[in-house]
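Q: Got a minute? One more chain.
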Amino acid sequence: MKAMKKGLAGIVLMLALLMLVPVTAKADGAAPVCAKRQTMEIYICRPLRSMGMTGAEGWIYIGNLAKDAEVYQVRSSNSNFQARKEKGINGIYVESKPHVLKAGERTRISFMVYQNGRSYRLYCDVTFKNMKRKFKAFKMGSREYDSSFKGFSAVSVLRFKSQKIKVKATPAKGYKVDCIIAWYTKNGRNVLKKYKNGSNVSLKNIVCLDVVYHTKNRPRYYKRPDSTYVSTNLYLKNYMPSPLYSKLNITFY
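A: Always. Here it is, folded:
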């Protein structure tokens, strides 16, 4: 009787293992995917009153991308844009080349993925739109700047007479302000200092401020980067650990 029970238990265990095998194989062999179409935002930089330029950058994330997959032949159908696969993240980085970028401009980003012994051709149609509001309110001292900053990623403002001002950014829905980075000149070098949102910021020898924020909404197919990922913003890589982070730059003149 005991021998029969052991035999039945062994058969049940074998059947369970056989049932798991095809499921695992299917997961390991899943084809890579990406969004067929998506939008990316246009930003406007106005660091000085006499300067102004437009640009755009964004990511196309690849789902079911194997760790050892090879992504190659990354191309843009519009010569005003370029794209590349970044290390340590399951995404294609897209950025504009210098030109006057307007809402409605488009490009198709296509690329090849080789994984699990097979090659796949993927593409995503990207449409560029004006940047949406990132802050509900933005105060420096007693001045409200939100309407002036709408649609901009870099702006310039008049210097304040006081040596310290309170900087408070109230994020729009779906965003969170992480910190404020002040850039100062000291002995001919740039020195960075981190402040909490809503703090009094010293203006002595200040060059500019970077207000770092991130989106709470995870893009489709997005996966957190691994340790080999390097932020596209090298100067603030410690404060912007993933593509979910952005910044507003404020220069004083």
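A: Confidence is low (pLDDT under 50) at residues 1-9, 11-27.
Q: Perfect, thanks.
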